[in-house]
Amino acid sequence: MKKVVIILAMAAALIAVSSCKNANALFRSGVEVHDDYTFTELRILNENGKEKSDDYIALYIKRNLMLVVDIWDEDGSTKEKCLAAVKKYSPKTVSCEKILAAFLDSLFAGDYKVLGAIDLDLAEQEEKLFEKKSDKDFNLHLLRTKKLLTKRYSYYSQLLDIAEAVCENSNGIFVETNLNYVDNAAKRLARLREDTAGLKNTVEHLQDAYSSCIDSDTNHTMKVLTVLTSIFSPLTIIVGWYGMNFKYMPELAWKFGYLYVIILSITTVLIFALIGKWKKWF
């Protein structure tokens, strides 16, 4: 009878694991909770690979059994984290809940420093923006930062889904007294996700501020052009006036006619410039 149970358990594991042949390209693939086992796929952020490709694993968990399927691990970093989680506890006190909690912790260890560096960078970008020292790549830098934060937000949500599903223990395969380890990991993940969401909001505010600055500069340029057009538009009237081909125009025969038109043009421009200054056009 025990052999039959073992064979059925292994068959169920093989069926679940067979879905991992094609690595999931998205985060938050979902957690499958069955009567006697829990199964999920994980896409793990990996910034140490040669091509910075993400790792993929799957977890098949039964009571007192956790099977880790290494689907894609370019540099072996995920394997090292899993082995380190197993070695963290002595054989006398080890359990699936403790190993899972330690493994989850290793997947986001050091991320507080990463988010802190992003926060500092955004503060520097904000300072550049208000000092009008932002360069042409400013908006591109914000877009890349937002993409990075969006990816991390989905990553933390994925891990939090797994931790919460384990803590719910709806199929009763986990030991309740050991679930506090996973619950603590879930709380840390929730804080990381909140911090990431806050940084995303900061990026969006900076994008709005940058757009406002661009609009303000454009409006200022248009205002200057409009003022200059208003000041020099009377010259067009003068040119049009004296460009008419009438036979009798006194200024044409006057020896001071040319000087008169020059003085008239300069005086007209100065008068309109003074009016503009008085009206605070510039």
Brief summary of the model shown:
The protein has 282 residues and is an alpha+beta fold. It is 64% helix and 9% strand. The chain contains eight helices and four strands, in the order H-E-E-E-E-H-H-H-H-H-H-H.
Describe this structure in words.
It is built from eight helices and four strands; from the N terminus they run αββββααααααα. The chain has 282 residues and is an alpha+beta fold. A four-stranded antiparallel beta sheet has the order 1-2-3-4, sandwiched between helices. α3 packs parallel to α6. The chain starts with a helix and ends with a helix. The model is unreliable at 1-9 (pLDDT under 50).
Output the keywords.
4 strands, 282 residues, disordered N terminus, alpha+beta
SSE order and pairing:
Blueprint: H1 2-17, E1 31-33, E2 38-44, E3 55-62, E4 65-72, H2 77-87, H3 96-107, H4 111-130, H5 138-168, H6 179-242, H7 250-253, H8 257-278
Antiparallel strand pairs: 1-2, 2-3, 3-4
Strand-pairing-aware structural class? alpha+beta
Mean pLDDT, all residues? 81
The general outline is rod-shaped
Straight-line distance between termini = 93 Å
Weakly predicted, low-confidence segments: 1-9
| H/I helix tally | 8
Question: From the alpha-carbon coordinates, what is the Rg to the nearest angstrom?
Answer: 35 Å
